Amino acid sequence: MKKYMIALAALCISTTACHRTGRETWEDTKTCGRYMGKGMRCLFGQHDSSPDFARLSRWSDESEFIPMQKQDAGYTALEVNEYTAPISRESPGDPDSALPGIEGFRAPSGKLAALFASIHFDTDQYTVIGDENLHAIREIAHYLISNPNTYVFVEGHADERGAAAYNLALGSRRANSVRTLLIQNGVNPDQLFAISYGKEKPVSQGHDPSSWKQNRRAQFKLHQLERR
Question: Is 0.70 surpassed by the pTM of this model?
Answer without folding.
Answer: no
